[in-house]
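Hi Q.,

Before the meeting this afternoon, I wanted you to have the nicotinamide-adenine-dinucleotide prediction in hand. No need to reply - just skim if you have a minute. The sequence and ligand are here:
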Amino acid sequence: MSLSGKHALVTGGGTGIGAATAKWLAAQGAQVTLLGRRLEPLQAVAAEIGRQAFAATADVTDAGAVENAFGASRERFGRHDILVNNAGIARGGPFLRQTDEDWSAIFATNLFSIVTTTKLALPGMLESGWGRVVNVASIAGLRGSPYTTAYTASKHALVGLTRSLALEVWKKGVTVNAVCPGYVDTPMTDQTVANIQKTTGRSEAEARAEIEKLGPRGRMLTSEEVASSIGWLCLEPQSAISGATIPVGGDSF
Ligand code: NAD
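Predicted structure with the ligand bound:
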């Protein structure tokens, strides 16, 4: 299997895209640490994967807790070869109603936590001369859309981080890329559907249909479709791809 002997850490690994990515990487032979806030969903995914998986709890915005979780993960499976920065939050609404707290929480989770996790994983990758960092951005990292200013700004910033860090470490054997999905059928989108229902009075089916028609395929993506793009970037032959922002099912073209 192509990722045998590699250790991957996936943040937000208990649900949605993170859980599907952990399973994809494990199926390729990687040992996987699932990092997130709630032990129960992490353990459920770890149990599905089996002995190759380890669940570590931390809020990604708490640098001390993240450092401890990375330490426990290294004790279990050794240096991190692959880091998937997937944990994220979305809070929509008109610009004038987005509070300072909304902006802080979104940037703490979607950007600054990635500075923390990447600083922890990168030294080991540079030392071994091999590494993969995949940042789960969004189609919102490549273009604007109304009622999502804080989220869109955070994902644009993540794309900037990806492109610049890629240039810094590429010659040292580490690639840094971003995947940029359109709407994916996950708990995050369930929340968006609920918000549309609340603000427009539409039914759940109508709200979901609104979202489905936004994508070029006329439906939401599955977590597995995004996971396979993330996983593909981690495989050996993709060592020549770095600083890329890969749109998955989004209408960025
Ligand atoms: P999700 O809500 O299932 O996943 C987000 C995960 O991040 C959850 O497991 C959540 O518990 C975790 N998380 C959030 N804040 C955290 C914190 N402070 N500490 C630790 N863990 C935390 O939804 P998803 O769609 O799988 O989202 C995964 C990523 O994909 C996010 O970065 C999101 O922005 C991005 N994304 C999602 C969509 C979509 O349509 N769902 C589209 C493009 C990009």
